[in-house]
Fold this protein.
Amino acid sequence: MLLLLLCTAALVSQTAARYTANWTSLDARPLPAWYDQAKVGIFVHWGVFSVPGFDSEWFWWHWQGQQPPDPKCVSYMRSNYPPGFSYAEFAPQFRAQFFNPGEWADIFKASGAKYVVLTAKHHEGFTNWASPYSWNWNSVDTGPHRDLVGDLADAVRNRSLHYGLYNSLYEWFNPLYLADKKNGFKTQNFVMQKLLPELYNMVVRYKPELIWSDGDWEAPDTYWNSTQFLAWLYNDSPVKDTIVTNDRWGAGCACKHGGYFNCEDKYTPGQLPKHKWEKCTSVDKLSWGYRRNMRLIELMDLPSIIKDMVRTVALGGNYLLNVGPTSDGVIPPVFEERLRGVGAWLDVNGEAIYASKPWRVQTENSTGQQPIWYTSKGTTVYAIMVTKPSESIVKLLVPKTSPTTKVTYLGNPKALPWSPVGPSSGLIVLLPQLPYSPGEAWVLKLENVH
């Protein structure tokens, strides 16, 4: 009876534990388990910037913000739009007339991704939902006249995928923000009147399971009131038990504070990080938003995506792959083809990816060709070959075998013959004729090794 009371008290204490508004407390929060198990997500950059479809999602800034302006953007506007045309005039052309959230969600499901992150608001300040704090600069008041965030939320969740939202803290041309910036961020009018009310409203309304924060680098976290917001998010919000956050909450926070670490766009560590991390990257190597003039050579091909994803997961990361839909609401077929290709590879090899853990050794290069990457689940180790071996054998020097070691390759349960390399570790596996792989990568499953 005493043991039962102690266990009950411990459970109540754990449930009642609250996080305080400082990084020491917030950083101690355990990451909800679903995120590390998911491994693969889809990023979607969509907004008014999809209308010009030129340069990148930073088009407005490159055209009218930075000094001097990007001459390519200036020339593009001069050649295609009348004098005096403003960026705001693109918004009514952001119509999303072909947007079918069910079709999008089907593509995301077919990609093998377990979560989806949509831009709720990028640096341009336009919200893809009816934010009460973004009057006439949102997708319900103008443009599509639709709640894009809500429509996609329903479709994604109906397919048992987790749903996250990207939100930019800063807005390039918001007068309140510019005034705070001019004051050296000693005032917080933008934060108190726009940013925080909008964030609270977004969380309560859509209950995202992930907030992908961005646009933090110009001001410290004390300006953004980041720790106060995160304390509410973790303690009292409707998603307090499931919400996952990244590390972009103020200048200097990246790779130091928050939930998982992004560190920087397309971050690729050289060795296993000590903290959970995510690599975000884009099929279009030159942009996150849709570009009408993109060329095939500027896109990641499927083998490159698979290789990148495998490396990321082997090093303990999640892989967030971005596509940029058109302003009409279409995911370009070339992006869809890439996503479905990833899904086809994961259909066969996902066992080595989902819910896997980094192994004691993440990679080896005993063949002299491309490295072999390792993931693990208990005493089962997966050796992922990201190029087709030139010979019918593959030598693995790192695994330590046992009399009960069994080797197969994913997609075929038939045991493969193998022999030890040395008395303490290593094995040589005789490979069959390997079948076609959509990502030009194959996985050996090694059972009862260490």
Q: What stands out?
A: The chain has 13 helices and 15 strands. The CA atoms of residues 101 and 154 lie 8 Å apart.
